[in-house]
Specification:
10 strands, 26% strand, globular, 7 helices, Rossmann fold, 7-stranded mixed sheet, alpha/beta
Length: 223
């Protein structure tokens, strides 16, 4: 079953028929052909398999995870594929990443959503752990969903990443997080994450070493 679903997920990707002056990959999600411009010299400007796993989940679970008119933020949006798919599914999306990635992110988002979405997504700078209250004040920012794909890897900002999840997450916010397991240090992040959030694995793909999680804040008021 794992291999069958993985084959279907990866089958959503296609490549240009001819070599072009810009490196791009194509994807089929939410009833649209999505073209993503990439840059091979930067981790954040490449589409990683975790993003495809999350996009596939959003599309195939659109009834139980209805994004229409929901307020969504993607952290570490990279090329913007997840943000684009969430937008095509009806969400109001804020796609965020480091300043040096915003140009390519904005290009991809605009190219694939203009006049196709109920809500035009916005692109905004977010450096994990920096100026969070200034740029995303808790009093006025409320997100129904926080989305993240492959944000945990070998980098020195895992503390800042956890701080960012904590700052953006309200009691009723749902986190959807696709993670590829690599090294023990990154894997330990899951244990630290569970100190703040109730974590549920909703999909697991051993052949990709990727798990998809749903999380909510611990200690929230329950109906």
């Amino acid at each position: 079953e794992d291999e069958q679903i993985v084959a279907e997920i990866m089958g959503r990707r296609f490549f240009p028929d001819v070599i072009t002056h810009k490196t791009w990959e194509g994807f089929h999600f939410a009833g649209h052909e999505i073209r993503i411009t990439e840059a091979t010299d930067c981790y954040g400007a490449v589409v990683w398999p975790s993003a495809l796993v999350l996009c596939y989940f959003l599309e195939t679970n659109s009834k139980q995870c209805n994004l229409v008119d929901k307020n969504v933020i993607e952290i570490g949006a990279g090329t913007g594929l997840v943000s684009i798919v969430a937008s095509l599914l009806g969400a109001f999306v804020t796609a965020t990443d480091l300043p040096e990635l915003l140009g390519n992110l904005q290009h991809n988002v605009l190219q694939n959503t203009k006049q196709k979405c109920k809500h035009q997504p916005c692109v905004k700078e977010l450096s994990w752990g920096i100026d969070l209250e200034k740029n995303f004040p808790k009093s006025s920012c409320h997100f129904d969903y926080i989305m993240a794909a492959d944000v945990v890897y070998y980098h020195p900002f895992l503390d800042e990443l956890l701080l960012t999840f904590d700052h953006l997450c309200k009691n009723d916010t749902v986190i959807l997080w696709a993670m590829k397991f690599r090294l023990e240090k990154e894997n330990q992040f899951v244990d630290r994450f569970q100190m703040l959030f109730d974590l549920e694995m909703i999909s697991n793909f051993p052949s990709l070493n990727i798990a998809l999680y749903k999380a909510m804040r611990k200690g929230r008021m329950k109906a």
